[in-house]
Every structure is written in C-alpha cells, then in structure tokens.
Amino acid sequence: MTQEDVTRTRWRRVAARRAVAVLATGAAVAGAAAVPAPARADGRTPGAHAGGGLARFYAQHLRWKACALGPDDEVGKQLDKAGARCADVTVPLDYARPGGRTIKIAISRLPASDRAHRIGTMILNGGGPGPAIDMPPFMREVMGEAGPRYDLVGMDPRALGRSAPVDCGWPSGTWITSAGQSRASFERSAAFAEDLAGRCARAGAGVLPHISTRNIARDMDVVRGALGEKKVSYNGASYGTYLGSVYATMFPGRLDRAVLDSSVDPAAWGPRLLGGTEVANDHALVGWADWAAERDATYGLGGSRAAVLGTVGEIIAASAREPLRVGRFRVDDRTVPLVLFDNLGTDEERPRAEFATSVQVLKKAAEQGSAEPTGPLEEELTFLLTGGESAYGSGQSAIVCGDAAAPRDPEAYWREIERNRPGSPVFAPLTHNINPCAFWPVRPAERPTEVGGHVPVLMVAATGDTRTDYPSNLALHRLLDGSRMITLPADVHAPYQRGYPNRCVNRKVNAYLATGRLPARDEICPPES
C-alpha cells in the first residue's frame, strides 16, 4: 500500500466524522444564556493554578505501555506496529477544584527515530473534535524529512476516544442533520436534536459541565509538563486550529513550532459554525457536477452541469416524498444533503469518483424503489444512521455545546433556514439547522477565549474549503500577530494533514517544521494537475 493509499484510507475512515463535525455559533447569539466565568488568557481558573494544587499533575510520572487494548483494537495494533507507546495522564475533572475528582487523558507517543537531530515533542490534533491518539504514524509520513526528528504525540481530547469518553447512547454517530424540504422535516430534526440532548443529560450530567476546549487546552499543558517539556510544537487541522490558538492564548510562550491547517474563526466557534459555509459547499458541488458531467458515460448523472445538479435535486425531492431504500437504510431529505455535504471535502479524483458512485446508488433508489449501497456509502450511512459510533457524536457535542451557548427557541432556527433557503436550497437547511446545543442540559462554565497575541505560526488555507471557509482562515490570521499563511487555490479541507497532492504546500510546511523559519511573507501555492 502506497502512502497515497494510506492517506486516502485514513481520511475516508474519518470523513463522516471530522469533515462534518465542525459546528458552532457566533460569540453573541439571540436567546443564548449568559455564561458565568469570564475566560482568562493565562489558562487559570479561579483558585487553580500550577502553584495552587496543580503541581502534582505536572510532575506525575507516566507509565508507558503497549497501545493495543485487545485483539480487536486496530488503532492500538497499528500504533504498536509503528513503534509507538501509550500512557494515561491524570488531570482534574474540574480545574477549579484540583483536589477533587480526576480523569485520565490518553496519549500515544512515537519517539523520534532521528535522535541525533531531534527537535522536540509535537502534539497532534486532526480536528472534529475527535480522537487523535491514532495520528503519529500517519503524520510522520506526511511530515517528510521533518517527521523523524519529532516525538509525535496523539492526544484524545477529554470526552472522546480513550479520554473519559462521553457516550450518550445515540442512534447516530453525528448530531448534524438537514432540516429537509418542509416544516414537518424540520420538526423531525428538532425532535431528533432534543432526544440527543436528553440522552446526554441522563448519561453525563456530572461530567458535561467540565467538557470544553479551554479544559482540553489545560489538559494539553499538563501533558506537556508530564512529558518534561518546557515547550511543545503543535500540528492541528480544522477544530485543531481552534484548540491550538486557544492553547497559544492561554499559555503564551509554551509553543515552539506550530502549523494550523484550515483554520476556524474563533469569533464564530460554537454550535452554529456551519452557518454561512453553504456558499463554499454550493461552489464545490458545482465543481463536482462539472467533473461528473464530463464522465456521463461512466456515471450517467447528466451530460451538463445543469443536468447533474438536476439529478441531485430530483434525488432530494424523492427522498422528501418517501425515504429512499438503500440496502438496510431508509434515507430521507434530512440525510441526503448530509451525504452530499460529507463528500465535498476535497476535489481529488478518487473521492470525487466515490461520490459519483454514491449518487448513482441514490439515483437508482429514487427511480427504481431501492438500491444496494457501495462499500463507502454503506460505511457512511452506518455512521450517520446507526448508533455504532454514538460515543463519537456524544463526546463531540459535549465539547462544542460546552464552549458556547446556543439559541433555545426552535423558531429562531426555522426563520434562519427559510431566510437562507432561496440562496442555497440544498445546503442552507443543513448549515443553519437546529442541533442538540439548543436543548443542552448545562450552560458553558466559561466564556470563550479571546484568541490573539503574538503567535508566530504557519497557517495553511484553501480558497474553496467547505468546512472552515477561506474568510474564517483570514479571520484567525488577522488575530495571530506574526503568523504567516500559505494559500492554496483548491476545493479541499485540511490540505496538509490530508496529504493533498500539492508539493509546494508540503515542501513549505515541512521546511518550516525542520528549520523553524517562517516564510518572510504570506505565499500562494499554485494548484497542481
């Protein structure tokens, strides 16, 4: 298997998670409740700091062990095969009460193989929010000659993966749905969101108040201390850029080299972040439609852009009349747009082809009454429509709902959907839809971090990013004094971590990681065929 194959396999596995997972709201939203404690930039909470109860956490001795938890733990087995070791880092559940209950944060470490030229430790986060313990072997390859010079550390954020996971027993791996084509569909999506929140109220009431990005950043700093490092480097994509910028703000001076790949606008982070990204997704859908039209002989979706988009519209309309029968699944107008959205994370050939075969299946189900899914579509629908990965969506929602409050009135969402539907009939009902944060049982314990300061990081941004759109990247760039940005004219999310085929981006990022020298100015990497 080539590195390209490894890259595609890994990103396909997480596409239905990290690609659709970035959700949030602006800093001030109508109907949102005030949160009690103002955020402090220094990372402390009232009554808790390194000299007031946290010293024992920073000084703890880590016990390294094999990563595999059993014969069925594929992630653990791959880490062990690569030479990584795993450990649990003890942290306070509530940093304001460091003498109280503790939880374990799971980390993996792949030691630098080039010990003579070792640079230091790099903490990795691939976005989501989602687990990241699996990332070191994959990222070592992406980082080229710089990879062997770092101890690469994957850390599962609290509430996810192996780090005190929150599993609310959801019937889905995600909390994202479209509002569909009608008021009745919206009502069903609102009931779905309320049910998800209710399940979390019952399953995680004692933990939810302490799940937030600020606490994850505090956990990250305890990990740094427990590893014996004065500074750490960082490589984060998507949500990972928000975590990285929050960490840099809360703990100034503790980052060495840092890469932020497809950045979140901190002012927009929260339960409604997707609002506005329908523009980029409409653009990407048109680009894919042009691609599919050129291959009409292969896929039969239409011989022109208009014809392909018409096929997509017909599929959605059919799913609104009656859920499509796709194998064992029933796919309605709340799910079809999510499948479309989920497949617009890149403009690469192979993912576009997989997307086209999925649309073929949906078209057949719409026209003939039923169809059998392809392997990728089966995997995707299993994630979206069954509870096999409930813990993923549950933990993710705990973080996002714990970071910022959401409007509580369902009518506010319906009005916003209807206001934006004419301009984007496929995606606006999804990007502006209600979600569990509207019914979340606890309010955020702290205000969001006011990100900023002198943070000389390297940013990577794609102009056609469908998740963290280009204006979001520019917003964070303006906040981080000393940052430099590499812009790629392409429709892709997280191009560097994805292993997107652009030698210019990869060369410039890896040169920075190897030397620590930022480009003198912002740069543009031209697309490659």
TrEMBL record:
SUPFAM superfamilies: alpha/beta-Hydrolases. One of its GO terms (molecular function) is hydrolase activity. It comes from the Bacteria. Residues 121-268 form the AB hydrolase-1 domain. InterPro entries: AB_hydrolase_1 (IPR000073), AB_hydrolase_fold (IPR029058), Pept_S33_TAP-like_C (IPR013595), Serine_prot/Carboxylest_S33 (IPR051601). Residues 433-525 form the Peptidase S33 tripeptidyl aminopeptidase-like C-terminal domain. Keywords: Hydrolase, Signal. Pfam families: Abhydrolase_1, Abhydrolase_4. Belongs to the peptidase S33 family. PANTHER family: 2-SUCCINYL-6-HYDROXY-2,4-CYCLOHEXADIENE-1-CARBOXYLATE SYNTHASE (PTHR43248), TRIPEPTIDYL AMINOPEPTIDASE (PTHR43248:SF29). This is Alpha/beta fold hydrolase. It comes from Actinomadura litoris.
